[in-house]
Design goal:
single chain; mainly alpha; MetI-like fold; 12 helices; globular
Length: 271
């Protein structure tokens, strides 16, 4: 038993070290004066962060990446959650086609997806616009939203909740928003985090569809990687920290929601 426990600790420790070393190296490199001749940096400075924050395209690129990610998450929520709910309640036969449909984006290279959209949508308002980019990101990221939501729907007693609310006169919209939604909040937040992180770091679609007209953080990162790796590391640190803070906020919201729901349920049982 002790040997098994020790083996588990060793495996987990190796995994943690394996994951942390690249992140810590990036953080240290972003504040290093020079780090190519010695094991440790030769000195530390915040100059690279100053140059990053004062760069004319950084704030705009960060805003574009956040806007793109938020809009993609919002559209996925509007499209995927109701569709998954209908497939699990009203049209059970649609579950299999939806499972197959949501796998397709994984099999379509983003280069082909981008070139196909550019070729088909040539109207002046849409062609190579942020609107087309958001649409492409929604298609690409749909599996990240659908799978956690579908798993959450499978994990609850959906039929009982749906029938009970229907007998009380609730509409399908009210059931989804007020009954099913809170019960699958974990899946919704998980899907949102996956979509947000995938789109925030998306380079290929943004580069091919909009190009420099709608520059995002990954595009700016690639540009500086060719010039100065220290500034590129500073951009990576800022982007990673921003995404991590947003993720932590969402996780805290879910944890508080679970705690509140558990408290209410326990109070109801005691009565």
């Amino acid at each position: 038993m002790k040997e098994n426990r020790l083996a588990r600790f060793i495996i987990i420790g190796i995994f943690i070290v394996y994951m942390l070393i690249p992140i810590l190296a990036t953080y240290f490199f972003s504040i290093a004066i020079r780090w190519d001749r010695t094991i440790l940096p030769e000195g530390y400075t915040i100059q690279w962060f100053k140059e990053t924050l004062t760069h004319p395209y950084f704030i705009r690129s960060l805003k574009n990446s956040l806007t793109l990610s938020v809009y993609t998450v919002a559209i996925n929520l509007v499209l995927v959650v109701p569709a998954a709910y209908i497939a699990h309640t009203k049209l059970p036969g649609a579950k299999m086609p939806m499972d197959i449909l949501t796998i397709l984006p994984f099999g379509i290279p983003r280069v082909i997806l981008a070139l196909a959209l550019i070729t088909v949508y040539t109207m002046p308002v849409i062609a190579r616009s942020p609107y087309l980019l958001v649409s492409a990101c929604v298609v690409f990221s749909m599996p990240y939203m659908y799978r956690p939501v579908a798993n959450s729907l499978d994990a609850i007693d959906l039929k009982t909740l749906n029938d009970a609310a229907g007998l009380q006169g609730a509409s399908s919209f009210q059931i989804l928003i007020y009954i099913i939604g809170p019960n699958i909040l974990t899946g919704i937040i998980s899907g949102s985090l996956l979509v947000f992180s995938a789109i925030f770091a998306e380079y290929t679609l943004a580069r091919l569809i909009t190009g420099a007209r709608f520059k995002t953080i990954p595009m700016l990162l690639v540009e500086f990687t060719r010039r100065d790796g220290r500034i590129a590391s500073a951009i990576s640190v800022i982007a990673f920290t921003t995404a991590m803070i947003i993720s932590l906020v969402l996780i805290i919201i879910v944890a508080r929601e679970k705690k509140t729901r558990k408290y209410v349920e326990q109070g109801g049982d005691e009565k």
